[in-house]
Amino acid sequence: xxxxxxxxxxxxxxxxxxxxxxxxxxxxxxxxxxxxxxxxxxxxxxxxxxxxxxxxxxxxxxxxxxxxxxxxxxxxxxxxxxxxxxxxxxxxxxxxxxxxxxxxxxxxxxxxxxxxxxxxxxxxxxxxxxxxxxxxxxxxxxxxxxxxxxxxxxxxxxxxxxxxxxxxxxxxxxxxxxxxxxxxxxxxxxxxxxxxxxxxxxxxxxxxxxxxxxxxxxxxxxxxxxxxxxxxxxxxxxxxxxxxxxxxxxxxxxxxxxxxxxxxxxxxxxxxxxxxxxxxxxxxxxxxxxxxxxxxxxxxxxxxxxxxxxxxxxxxxxxxxxxxxxxxxxxxxxxxxxxxxxxxxxxxxxxxxxxxxxxxxxxxxxxxxxxxxxxxxxxxxxxxxxxxxxxxxxxxxxxxxxxxxxxxxxxxxxxxxxxxxxxxxxxxxxxxxxxxxxxxxxxxxxxxxxxxxxxxxxxxxxxxxxxxxxxxxxxxxxxxxxxxxxxxxxxxxxxxxxxxxxxxxxxxxxxxxxxxxxxxxxxxxxxxxxxxxxxxxxxxxxxxxxxxxxxxxxxxxxxxxxxxxxxxxxxxxxxxxxxxxxxxxxxxxxxxxxxxxxxxxxxxxxxxxxxxxxxxxxxxxxxxxxxxxxxxxxxxxxxxxxxxxxxxxxxxxxxxxxxxxxxxxxxxxxxxxxxxxxxxxxxxxxxxxxxxxxxxxxxxxxxxxx
Length: 706
Fold this sequence. Notes:
disordered N terminus; alpha+beta; seven-stranded mixed beta sheet
C-alpha cells in the first residue's frame, strides 16, 4: 500500500490538504452524477450483444419463441463511481465495427479488439478541442463534456478562443471566493486487479509568474493527497526534446539525443516535465508542459486498486485577465480528434489529458520457465518425461511425522535435471558437496508426504493432482511445501488459490431488487481471525503477494461497498447543484436537511451478518447541513431537528466495517425530477427465425439503423 504523504509534498489548496476521516470519506468532495447521453453524442463501446449462432427456436410453445445467448461485457472497474471501465482487450460492440474500417484492431469476424501488443489495459483520454472523452484508444466519444467526466469540479469552464483557434480549461472569470478544482477517480477493485503502472499526459500552460497549476494524487486507501512535482527543463535539457521546438538538437547524434532524453526522463521520474517558452508581445512569462509526454506516476499508486487525481488552479494576481493565465488541456481547434477513425490511437496523442493504466492480477502466476520446458523435452522432444518414469536418477524420501505406516509412502523418483531447472532448493543441493549430491538421494524430514508428491508432480505436469477437491487447508500446506522446496511457480499458484478460497469473485455490494430499501452483500467475506491467520501464514512462507492482497481486501472492501451503494441509490442524491456550488460541500447553518437513520449490521464476519435495512427519517436523529445534495461525510451529529419528510436514506454500520465507514450519511432531496441510472439491457434480440433448424439465417444487421 502507499506510504503516507511527506510534509513537503502537501497540496497548497486547503480542500486537498484536508485529511480524510476514513477511506470512504470523500474529504469534502462530492461525487456528481451526469446522465449518459445517446449516440451520436456519446457511444456505448461495450454494450451487451447477442451471438446469432446461439439462437434456438422453440416450437412447443403456444406462440413462436426464440432464445439467444446474450454476451454482457463485465467492467474491470469504474470511472468517477458511475461510469464502467472495460479492459481494452474486450471486443467493441459489433454494431460499431463499421467505424473501424481499415483499423488494425478490426478482426476478420467483425469484432474490434485492441492489438495484442497493447501496453495499457485501461485508458481514458480527453480532447478539449472536441470536449469529449475517449476510452481505450477508440476514437469514438464515450463522454461528452469535460465536466461530465469528472468526479467533482468547481469554478472552471472550457474557454474557446476563436481568434487564436485554441481551447482549454481555465478558472471562471471573476470568481475569487473558490479556488478552481477538478478531480477524476479510478477504481479497479471490482476486478481485483491492482495498478502495475500509471502514466499520464497532464497538459498545462502558464502565462504569468504568479499563476500556477498544481496536480495531486491520492490512492483510495490513503487519507491524504500528495502533490506531483513539476520540473521546468533547463535550456540544456530542453534541446533533447524535439517536440518542444527549441534549441538545435542536430548538433549531436540522434542516438546520443535519445539516450540523453531517456536519462532526463528517468532522472525526473514521478514529476511532470515542462519548459520555458519564448516570451512574446503579449506575455513575458510562458511555461508549457512537454507536449504528449506521459509522466510516469507509478510510484504514487503502485499496488493500489484505485486512486483520485486532482488539479487546482491559481489565477494570476496581476492584470484584468489573470484568470486566463493558468490553463489545462490546451489544444488547437485545427486538430480535433473526432472523425479520425483511420488514425486510431495516433490521433489521441493530441489530447491534453491522457490517463493510461496497466493492471495486474492480485497474485501473478508466471508461465512455465524455458529451462524447465527444455529439461522435460531434452531426451525426446516429442515425449515429455514423467515422475517415477523411466530414466529417473534421483530419489526423494519423505519422513512424514504423522504417518505410522511407512510402506504407504514409497520413494519418489525424479530426474536430476528437472529438479535442478525449477527448484532452487534442489539446484543448490545438487551443486553442493553434500552427501545427497553424490548419492542422488535425499530425505525430507518433517514434511507431509502427499503435498511433497504433489509438488514434484507439478514440475512434470504443470498441474496439481485432484486440484478441484482441495480446500483452504490443503492449499496452505502445499504453499508451505512450495516455500521450503523453493518452487516459485507452485508458490505463486498456491497463493492465488488461497486468495480465491477466501475472497469472492467480486467486491460488489448490490441492492436487493425485491426491496428498494434493503441492501445485501451477495458473498461471504473472511472475518478478521481468518485474515490474521492467513497473514501469519504469508509471513512464515514468504508469500508477500498474498499478504499485500489481504491488505487490499481489508482496505478496499468498505470503499467498494460505499461505491456500490451510491450506484444503487437514486441519482437525485447526486444531481449537480448550481455551478457556483459545483463539486464540493460548503456548510451553511441556514440550510439543513434531516437524514434517515439506518439500523442493523452489514455484511458477514466482523462486518456483520444481517441484511442492510433503511428506515425513514428520525425526528430526533442526525442532521446534515450541506448546501447541496450528495453523500456527505460529517462526523458531527446535531440532534433535535425536525424530519422534513421524503425518501431520505442513511447509513450507520456497526462492527469492524462501521469503524471503517464512520458516520457516513447520504442526503436525498425528493422530487428532483431525475431518473435513476439506466439499467443494463439484454441487448438486441433477433426476430423469430422462420427457417428450420437445419438452416437458420443470421439476424439482419442493424448497422443502417444506427
